[in-house]
Design brief:
alpha/beta; 10 helices; about 50% helix; 7 strands; about 250 residues; about 15% strand
């Protein structure tokens, strides 16, 4: 059985990946869509050309991660594409955030992504693709977005290293580093509108981010960065000291 697996598929970028992968890859027997909200997954499944297998899981829970592994072991599929989209962010000072939110970001953005990747690797086929959703926030530390940015830096570093480890198996790994995307992400991340207003200016449509991501993955690129503003951020983060950037952005307002 030839499949694609998409976590965080109930909305936003994850949902868009499911739609585009279903349209692009006609040889898939199933697309496994994973999220906590079964109703949203059922709506999505009706939109897919490929048969959908709905897995209603909370990947922050060890029990649900084990359930996912058990499903893999039972079916023993051939995985063509893995897209790790599950994740969330919370804007605001670290010390004022709740324990559940701050630690939860690490559990979902880092631990769950690592676990899912580890469980899937034995079933990845030659010339398969792993797409990990990082963020432009990974490029440098972000006060008032501290844990999220740090968690995405982990995803970026992990993905780039894993790409080289899997080279001999002919499995490609691409880290996707979008800036602000026009999804419901910020409804949860910033319900009180505490974030930087300039981020709203640079929001882009998820369809464009996903289209570029799939193209970059097909080309074997290790990074996918949509749009010149985020490409500039990436370049500046490599050239300028992070201390200087942080001073300019966070101490001049």
């Amino acid at each position: 059985m030839n499949i694609a697996i998409i976590t965080g598929a109930s909305s936003g970028i994850g949902e868009e990946f499911a739609l585009q992968i279903s349209n692009k890859y006609s040889d898939l027997d199933e697309i496994w869509i994973i999220a906590r909200r079964k109703d949203r997954l059922e709506i999505l499944s009706d939109k897919l050309r490929a048969k959908a297998r709905i897995l209603t899981l909370d990947l922050a829970l060890d029990s649900d991660l084990r359930q996912f592994k058990n499903e893999l072991d039972l079916i023993s599929p051939s995985v063509q594409i893995l897209v790790n989209c599950a994740g969330f962010g919370k804007i605001g000072p670290f010390a004022l955030g709740s324990y559940e939110e701050e630690v939860g970001m690490v559990n979902v953005n880092c631990k769950a992504l690592t676990a899912v990747t580890y469980f899937v690797l034995p079933y990845m086929k030659e010339h398969g693709s792993i797409i990990q959703i990082s963020s432009a926030a990974a490029f440098l530390p972000q006060p008032d977005f501290a844990v999220y940015a740090a968690s995405k830096a982990y995803v970026l570093s992990f993905s780039r290293a894993l790409k080289y480890e899997l080279h001999k198996r002919k499995i490609n790994v691409t880290a996707i580093c979008p800036g602000p995307v026009d999804t419901a992400f910020f409804d949860k991340a910033d319900p009180d509108n505490q974030g930087k207003q300039y981020k709203k200016i640079f929001r882009v449509k998820p369809q464009k981010v996903v289209t570029k991501a799939l193209k970059d993955s097909t080309l074997g690129n290790e990074l996918s960065i949509y749009g010149w503003p985020m490409k500039c951020v990436f370049a500046f983060s490599k050239i300028l000291p992070h201390k200087l950037i942080l001073k300019l952005v966070y101490e001049t307002h």
